[in-house]
Amino acid sequence: MSRFRPSGGPGLQDFLFRSQVKELYRKLVKTAYKIPDLQTRTETMSFYKGEFKKLTDPKESKTQFSYLRNSVGSLAEMLNRSGVSKF
Question: Where are the alpha helices (DSSP H) in 1-87?
Fold first, then answer.
């Protein structure tokens, strides 16, 4: 048993993963607000909020995170190509 954290508690990897998720979510919000159409922007944010809520399942979280990272990257690339933003 470690004297720094109780057994079964979150460890360093959990903390790092959580900070990566927060960083990705901030990047998503920043990217989504560059979508000019309000309805499309709202639908995009709604979809991603649902996807981020799935990250609470520890068994699927690593796979889901990599999917979201690729998806946000694709969204940013699509906006750059359309001339909406320089991300």
Answer: 12-32, 38-53, 61-81
